[in-house]
Amino acid sequence: MALAGCPDSFLHHPYYQDKVEQTPRSQQDPAGPGLPAQSDRLANHQEDDVDLEALVNDMNASLESLYSACSMQSDTVPLLQNGQHARSQPRASGPRSVQPQVSPRQRVQRSQPVHILAVRRLQEEDQQFRTSSLPAIPNPFPELCGPGSPPVLTPGSLPPSQAAAKQDVKVFSEDGTSKVVEILADMTARDLCQLLVYKSHCVDDNSWTLVEHHPHLGLERCLEDHELVVQVESTMASESKFLFRKNYAKYEFFKNPMNFFPEQMVTWCQQSNGSQTQLLQNFLNSSSCPEIQGFLHVKELGKKSWKKLYVCLRRSGLYCSTKGTSKEPRHLQLLADLEDSNIFSLIAGRKQYSAPTDHGLCIKPNKVRNETKELRLLCAEDEQTRTCWMTAFRLLKYGMLLYQNYRIPQQRKALLSPFSTPVRSVSENSLVAMDFSGQTGRVIENPAEAQSAALEEGHAWRKRSTRMNILGSQSPLHPSTLSTVIHRTQHWFHGRISREESHRIIKQQGLVDGLFLLRDSQSNPKAFVLTLCHHQKIKNFQILPCEDDGQTFFSLDDGNTKFSDLIQLVDFYQLNKGVLPCKLKHHCIRVAL
């Protein structure tokens, strides 16, 4: 064996020393007796190569393990010269005893380094047990696996990813248009409304709501802000749909609670001082037991007949008395449960259910989809009574959740109080008010003067039209033509609709004071009608045209207060009550999605 080029410390390896002792003397000392012995040279360098010797010993131990592993592989699977397995070649016969076949996993220990070409077949077989996209996860419950089950979780047993928990929801607007929105499984009704407001470029005044509409049942209700949209949709039939609509009365109870519950309809379990704060606390406190009582028309299940019964609403459910107005436990019969039910408004109760009045309501179990037999149909004498029952149902069922939904927009508004002005774009913020009345323009520094100039500029088109008409030249937009067209661009004008349709729109968007809309008059083609809500009652006021000095004006009070168009009229009554019972506050709007 040639020793040239080998490090001296390599000779310390016991495997090599054994080989050296077995070789002839002539091979151990080829230089002859004249040269110093190998042991003397090792002794001279032993002290200098202590660290290197330990490092080489570790390397030799790894080489020995590699040598033994390769020897075992060469005995079981012979290799060709190109490094591939000779699988089709028969094994050579010899005196060696035949060993039982072992699996690839038992053949090689994974803690030992193995030659890459020798384990290529093992890697191919191991792909059957592992996936290339997910790492192997040890099963934390091996005792639950059967004898044939692998101790590794398969990809099919893993929980689905959150990215797949999405669903498409179709939402309709009042004019029949619709939009398909992809939402997450945990999206609430408030979140979806804010998303639709952003996509539709509407003003977010926290009065938008999502309506659950069942046309085949003639029912609808406004979803609470905390309800999950996907969960509500799972209880709806295929004919049902979601509507995107305004509802100004959604939290009106928290603003004016005394207007919702007449004294004869509310009974408290403890003494109440009758204040608004005490009224709210009694409804929101789960330990209190308020009761709403009164007469309602109740439709019998499975029949077309209606009966007028004395009904009381408690936290445990809705009960009716079988003996007059008695509320003794033996005379009370359960009509509906509040836990797994929701309260709806009847859209066409007279036509579909032969209801005695137009102020119908329904308690619908969540499990009911198309069947009308399990619907608990009720009717009130007037709209205020129906609103009282429906508001009490919501308060007794949700309690503090309803109040938290009301407080969230208030808290956001308080945080944004220093920035009360609307957020504008960069280009709009770079604009300043200018005055070009003189020979040179000047920047208006006074905010009050700037606002006055803006209002004057907004009405400048009326002055120019009037001046051009007086001089005898025809204005591009004639005053008479302009006054009959300009209002049609406003959201509060709803065109040629009937009185019943205008009442229905106001009821849907909330019976709050100051809610209004304008429409064309059906009796007078040149007049218009202002439909206004006050004290939960809807009133109509006719707007008549009148002429003065050859110009057409509009008036609500027989010509005492005249306006050149309907926009001026609406602007005036939004600031002044005048002959109306209240100021114009909210306008009914329909948005195209």
Automatic annotation (TrEMBL):
InterPro entries registered for this protein in UniProt: BPS-dom (IPR015042), GRB/APBB1IP (IPR039664), Grb10_SH2 (IPR035037), PH-like_dom_sf (IPR011993), PH_APBB1IP (IPR039665), PH_domain (IPR001849), RA_dom (IPR000159), SH2 (IPR000980)
Residue ranges of domain SH2 in the record: 492-588
An individual GO BP term: negative regulation of insulin receptor signaling pathway
Sequence ranges of Polar residues compositional bias: 82-91
PH domain residues: 289-398
SMART domains registered for this protein in UniProt: PH (SM00233), RA (SM00314), SH2 (SM00252)
Region of interest: Disordered: 20-40, 82-112
A GO molecular function held by the record: insulin receptor binding
PANTHER family referenced in this protein's UniProt entry, alphabetically: GROWTH FACTOR RECEPTOR-BOUND PROTEIN (PTHR11243), GROWTH FACTOR RECEPTOR-BOUND PROTEIN 10 (PTHR11243:SF4)
Biased composition (Low complexity): 95-112
Protein name: Growth factor receptor bound protein 10
Pfam family, one: PH
Domain Ras-associating residue range list: 165-249
GO cellular component, one term: cytoplasm
Presence of keyword Phosphoprotein: yes
Compartments, as annotated in UniProt: Cytoplasm
Family indicated by similarity: Belongs to the GRB7/10/14 family.
Swiss-Prot/TrEMBL keywords: Cytoplasm, Phosphoprotein, SH2 domain
